[in-house]
Each structure stands twice: as structure tokens, then as C-alpha cells.
């Protein structure tokens, strides 16, 4: 398993795991005190940064699982999502309404993307 690369590893999780050209990571907004639109914008910037670390991009997204605790946020989330995803490069996606670990978070994303890193 020498071809597994981990970044930001703690005793409980890694911020990014790469294996055989696939990047796996989870993102939550850095500032859960922001209103929903600002949290989603922040979240997409964070995903872009993590994709860059994996030598990947939005065009290489394979699957995104979206966790939204408040169904009423979906309209704003989709508006920002549609502007963020490059035309013709939408990943498979699921949106789940559920409670998150911390009450201030308005979204959590589980990302799988193709990457050039190991």
C-alpha cells in the first residue's frame, strides 16, 4: 500500500487521501458562524484549494455527496453549485438532509476526484 498518500493526518482522519489517481476528502466550512451563502462560497473555495493540492480540478470531480441539515438551503446551494461546476463536467452527486456533527455547519461535502498525484 505504498502508493497511498495522506495529507493533514491526525489520529482520527486525514484531510486528503490519494490512491491510484483518485483523491478522497471531506470539507466543511472553516467558519460555521457565517450565513449559509457565505459558508457555501467558502466551502467551494476550500474544495478548489484541496483539489489543487491533489493536482486536480473541478473538471476532474467524479462524485460529490452533499450533506445539508436545512432543506431550505438547497436553492442557494444549487445556485452557487451551478455557477461553480464547469459546464459539461458535472460529477455524480447526491444531496442528503441530515444533522451534522457541529450545529453551525450548513453543509458538508464528501469529494471523490481524479488526480495526477499518487
List the helices and strands and how they pair.
Blueprint: E1 4-7, E2 16-19, E3 22-27, H1 36-53, E4 61-68, H2 74-84, E5 92-97, E6 108-114
Parallel strand pairs: 4-5
Antiparallel strand pairs: 1-2, 2-3, 3-6, 4-6
Helix pairs in contact: 1-2
Describe the 3D structure.
The protein has 118 residues and is an alpha+beta fold. Helix content is 25%, strand content 30%. It has a single domain (22-114), classed as 60s Ribosomal Protein L30, Chain: A, CATH 3.30.1330.40. It is built from two helices and six strands; from the N terminus they run βββαβαββ. A six-stranded mixed beta sheet has the order 1-2-3-6-4-5, with helices on one face. A hairpin with a 2-residue loop joins β2 (16-19) and β3. The chain starts with a strand and ends with a strand.
Biggest pleated sheet? 6 strands, mixed
Q: List low-pLDDT spans.
A: none
Number of folding domains? 1
CATH class: Alpha Beta
The name of the CATH superfamily reads RutC-like
Q: How many individual β-strands?
A: 6
Q: Which class best fits the helix and strand makeup?
A: alpha+beta
What's the arrangement of strands in the largest beta sheet? Answer: 1-2-3-6-4-5
Number of helices: 2
SSE string: EEEHEHEE
Averaged pLDDT: 95
What is the radius of gyration computed over CA atoms, rounded to a whole number of angstroms? 14 Å
Indicate the percent of residues in helices.
10-25%
User: What is the CATH topology classification name?
Assistant: 60s Ribosomal Protein L30, Chain: A
Strand residues, percent: 25-35%
What is the CA-CA span between the terminal residues? Answer: 11 Å
Give the CA-based shape.
Answer: globular
**Reported CATH architecture:** 2-Layer Sandwich
Amino acid at each position: 500500500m505504498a502508493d497511498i498518500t495522506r495529507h493533514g493526518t491526525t489520529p482520527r482522519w486525514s484531510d486528503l487521501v490519494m490512491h491510484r489517481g483518485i483523491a478522497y476528502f471531506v470539507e466543511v466550512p472553516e467558519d460555521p458562524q457565517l450565513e449559509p451563502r457565505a459558508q457555501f462560497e467558502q466551502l467551494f473555495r476550500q474544495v478548489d484549494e484541496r483539489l489543487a493540492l491533489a493536482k486536480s480540478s473541478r473538471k476532474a470531480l467524479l462524485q460529490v455527496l452533499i450533506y445539508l441539515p436545512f432543506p431550505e438551503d438547497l436553492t442557494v446551494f444549487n445556485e452557487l453549485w451551478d455557477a461553480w461546476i464547469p459546464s459539461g463536467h458535472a460529477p455524480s452527486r447526491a444531496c442528503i438532509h441530515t444533522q451534522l456533527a457541529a450545529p453551525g455547519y450548513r453543509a458538508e461535502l464528501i469529494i471523490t476526484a481524479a488526480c495526477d498525484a499518487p
